[in-house]
Amino acid sequence: MIYFDASATTPLLPEAREAMVNLMDLSISGNLGNASSLHTAGSRAKGELIRARTEIAKLIGVPPLELILTSSGSESNNTVLHTFEHCPIFVSAIEHPSVLRPAEEYGNPCIKVPVNEQGTINLNYLKLKLTEIAKADPKQKILVSIMLANNEIGTVEPIRKVAIIISELRKQGYRNIYLHTDATQAIGKIPVDAKKSMIDYLTFTAHKLGGPIGIAALYVRTGAPFRPLILGGSQENKRRAGTSNVVLAAGFAAAAKYSNDNKTWGKYLKIKELRNYLAERIMQIIPSARIITPLNNLSSEHEESALPNILNVSFPAAEGESTQLYLDLNGIEVSTGSACASGALEPSHVLMAMFHDAEIAHDSVRFSFNLDTTKQQIDVLLDKIPGIVAKIQDLSTMNKEPYNERQRMHQ
Amino acid sequence: MSDNECTNKPKKADPWAYTEIVKDHFLNPRNFIMGDETKWQADGEGLVGNPVCGDQMLVKIRVKGNKITNIGWKTYGCASAIASTSALSELAKGKTLEDADRITAKEICNYLGGLPEHKFHCSVLGHQALHKAIQNYKASHDS
């Protein structure tokens, strides 16, 4: 199989496996205790945990003690939003559901910042609304939660500009505005530095960089408000109850070390070239296709417009789940924004927020790569995709013309 | 058991969650109209669904002596939508208009050896398109 779904989860790194197996073997012989126990086996576990936390924290340039280990990116996100219950919460319209849903639940109000057709948030809208709400009650705690990069389309959000808007408001005396970013997809692919970016909370997870599923992290800047989501234990500096998962932490740390040592964000430039090659070739062989991921470098600060490893494309009249399944039968694994594929009734909220067009959303296919992706694999895809799309289009009732060359019927 | 339930349910947790029959109809759809559907001569046609929910079916029929002699279709949608319209076309072919009009979602689903629950409710629409096509035929051929 050719695996083009790294944004769903990356293959486990051998280094991560080895680190975990070593600790599991220690556990079999009774030499790896509970990290909260004071005896030798407990201290050993605690030592492993400290070592792991240090390596993981290095990935985003923060002190280890500001890092909380959690069970998933979703838990990290929920923890932050839960802290701001009854407060105004700003989110982008294209956040992951683990930010959107709790924002709707806890925010009072929850304000969704719209995005353009590149998936970039409307900074003016954010600035205007944020200023308005801050001025209405200068002491009010406010959370702004904007993802670093989107999981479906790869768009990198202008998080530094958001931080500047917030710090200007703080200087004007509105000191209770805080910034959270969900960096789950960005980590390891582009440089991430929580301190430099003036971020108060940052979410990231192990299984998007070759670590195991089941462990993630949350950076909380010292001094930022915090309210634990899980109560009943003093682990994680009293911020998250539950026996420390030392084995998974070691796997996470091994993946973080791999990323730190190899500076993977540099290596992904090669993957970006492959991604751009794929986009270029798709437009040549299927001219009606629409590339959704913004490939151009739009920012003046030499920041990337999108992650290097994601390409989202919509093929007119070809529903995404059908394309996905045909590709799967041809040995190529991808994702889709179609509602059908997930069992949901609505297609991707991300593509809907960008285009307000259900068809573009249903037709979208996401190819996502990791460092092992090769040109040969991409050429196999390029060989198969025109026939598959042509067949599904021939079966289809919908218009096969490019989206922008026909009247939008379903605004 | 009502028409809103499918007696056949996929037995095991296939990664596809689709039966072999569904897969076969998805990959080798029967009776679909190749190329431009407007050029396919028909005595009646019906269109249901819309792109907002992700499924749309067009069914066209040729009728002779109250029987469906030929049926053609197009479907925009997921594998289950495509397979179920294909199954419907096989079920309807050769039937009298009255018998064809009695085909239910349940029959289509059973013919396919079952469909995942959430698919059954959103993607089996072919019989509705056929119903419209029959009505369309009757409206233009009423004495």
Report on this model:
- The complex is a heterodimer of chains A (411) and B (143).
- Chain A is of the alpha/beta class and 411 residues long.
- Chain A has 2 domains: 14-261, Aspartate Aminotransferase, domain 2 (3-Layer(aba) Sandwich), CATH 3.40.640; 264-399, Aspartate Aminotransferase, domain 1 (Alpha-Beta Complex), CATH 3.90.1150.10.
- Chain A has 14 helices and 13 strands.
- In chain A, helix 6 links the parallel strand 5 (142-145) and strand 6 (177-182).
- In chain A, helix 2 packs parallel to helix 8, helix 5 runs parallel beside helix 6 (159-171) and helix 9 runs parallel beside helix 14.
- The longest helix of chain A has 22 residues, at 264-285.
- Chain B has 143 residues and is α+β, with helices and mostly antiparallel strands.
- Chain B has a single domain (26-141), classed as Sufe protein. Chain: A (Alpha-Beta Complex).
- Chain B is built from 6 helices and 3 strands; from the N terminus they run αβββααααα.
- Chain B has helices at residues 20-27, 79-92, 97-101, 105-111, 117-123, 126-141; strands at 44-50, 55-64, 67-76.
- Chain B has a 3-stranded antiparallel sheet.
- In chain B, helix 1 (20-27) crosses helix 2 (79-92).
- Chain B starts with 19 loop residues before the first helix and ends with a helix.
- The mean pLDDT of chain B is 87.
- The interface between A and B is medium-sized, with 24 and 32 residues.
